[in-house]
Write a structure and sequence with these properties.
The chain is of the alpha/beta class. The protein has a single domain, classed as 3-Layer(aba) Sandwich (Undecaprenyl pyrophosphate synthetase). It is built from nine helices and six strands. The longest helix is centred in the first third of the chain and has 21 residues. The chain starts with a helix and ends in a 7-residue tail after the last helix. Homodimer.
Length: about 250
């Protein structure tokens, strides 16, 4: 091990010791951004950048499992991404499907957060079959946000809520009365789960881009300059340390 590697190991151990005195997030969200820029700067293809980023997701989840973080939501494909070139999307669909299968094979509980309507039939079918084989319960649950948009999630939740009440024969006035913060939350993609405590975004962009738009009202954010393929365990530990040091006011 070189001197830099040794220093990182020492620094990691110190960070872990610091975290032992705190409660870590029960739900961690991560926006995996920067695959294409990383590839461009490395002189590699966009597809290679996505493949390295996908491998980083599996590594990242193993770190979370080791830290006993029980719930992670990973934004793998946004609704905006669906407008990319057919060549890039074809590679992305194959990489995403393989990554979801790898997550399931690692023994994690897998849940889809997003709408599958904009995805090709073979991708929808492949992910559905993977979910059926995935562990129903695990130390770590992974929400894979595919075809995800925050505004679309809220629209889908309200539509589902209205349909549910419409099927019960409720009048428009009764349906309007039934719409509340709690009733909408019960129809989100993350229904039944706690809201994210911390959201991490890589690549230097300091915005959420609609990620978990409803759920993140009281979330803490942590942004870093590193592109996702270069994200290290020490970066996660630094994010968690920063989170633990904050005084959460929950909007106050």
């Amino acid at each position: 091990m070189d001197d830099d590697g040794l220093l990182y190991r020492v620094y990691e151990r110190r960070l872990i010791r610091e975290l032992e005195a705190f409660d870590l997030p029960q739900h961690l969200g991560v926006i995996v951004d920067g695959n294409r820029r990383w590839a461009k700067e490395a002189g590699e293809t966009t597809e290679h950048g996505h493949r390295v980023g996908a491998a980083k997701i599996a590594e990242f989840l193993s770190w979370c499992e080791g830290l006993r973080i029980p719930l992670v939501t990973v934004w793998m494909l946004s609704t905006d991404n669906l407008s990319r070139t057919p060549e890039e999307l074809e590679a992305l669909y194959e990489i995403i499907t393989a990554t979801v299968e790898q997550i399931a094979e690692a023994g994690y509980c897998v849940r889809l957060a997003g709408t599958a309507e904009g995805l090709p039939e073979e991708v929808r079918g492949g992910i559905a079959r993977i979910q059926e084989r995935a562990a129903p319960e695990s130390q770590l649950t992974v929400n894979v946000a595919i075809g995800y948009g925050g505004r679309e999630e809220i629209v889908d939740a309200v539509r589902e809520l209205v349909r549910d009440h419409g099927q019960r024969g409720r009048s428009p006035e009764q349906i309007a009365e039934a719409i509340s913060v709690d009733s909408i939350a019960e129809h989100l993609y993350t229904r039944g789960q706690p809201d994210p405590d911390l959201i991490i975004r890589t690549s230097g962009e300091q915005r959420l881009s609609g990620f978990l738009l409803w759920q993140s009202v009281h979330s803490e954010y942590w942004f870093c300059e590193t592109y996702w393929p270069g994200f290290r365990r020490v970066d996660l530990l630094r994010a968690l340390r920063d989170f633990c040091r904050r005084e959460r006011r929950f909007g106050a």
